[in-house]
Amino acid sequence: MKKFLLIFLCCAFSAPASSSNSRLGLELLPKGRPFRLTFADPREIRMGINFQGNSVINATVGNYFSILGIEPAESNPEEPKEVFHLGLEGAGYFTMRQADKRFPLETADGLIGAYFEGAYGDWQAQLRMTHISAHLADGSSGTPIAYSREFLALRLGYIPYQELQIFGGIHYLVNTIPQLRPWTLQLGSSYFIPLNFSLVPFAGFDLKWKQESPTNPSFQMMLGLALNNPPKSYQSFRFYYAYYTGTDARGQFYNQVVTTHTVGIDMQI
Description:
Blueprint: H1 2-19, E1 24-28, E2 47-52, E3 56-72, E4 82-97, E5 105-120, E6 123-136, E7 148-161, E8 164-177, E9 183-192, E10 199-210, E11 218-227, E12 238-247, E13 257-267
Antiparallel strand pairs: 1-3, 2-3, 2-13, 3-4, 4-5, 5-6, 6-7, 7-8, 8-9, 9-10, 10-11, 11-12, 12-13
């Protein structure tokens, strides 16, 4: 794990040095992050809750903070803006199922990671190092397995205008228990209809092809409404319907195939 972290930090700090010959400005604890959150991804960092039709509640508690911001101290206003962030992120993914009048906790997946990402005009790039572990809680009658992973992800994003995001990437499992084939390919997009209303319709999808999976691909589609406050709809509260089919996103059931319909809300982070 220490060697893995060292490689990540070396890649992170060498990138901005080679990207510009101008002086660099440094900012501690900058706001936001250059790579827009890909909220259609079932395992993206988020704050939210959703309800499945079979009396299942899924809750996500996650956030991020950028530690260091890097950008040219003297930038040409005629050139695209260039910025880099180094930060940390974490999330917990919880599943509860109704039993009588209770909702006992069945599964708990935890994520912690670091990211180095940048934006140059309409283009964004992200290098991400993430650890994930998955557990059965005391509300489950299943048999737990040992589950732990560390992976690197390299993703590119393109935002030709504020309402549209297109992204894709490659994920590689550096360490995994149980042993699995390492590669995952990802493609996704989101679009907010540019309407000057209090509620803005949006749509998004996330597609993954995983070597580890018994079936491919895994696909999620989201349709919903965003509260247009602030004006950047993708940063607002979002009410949505989601359809998912593919390998179970919960680590303890990674080798099972599911199809789900959910309604939920994601909160601004």
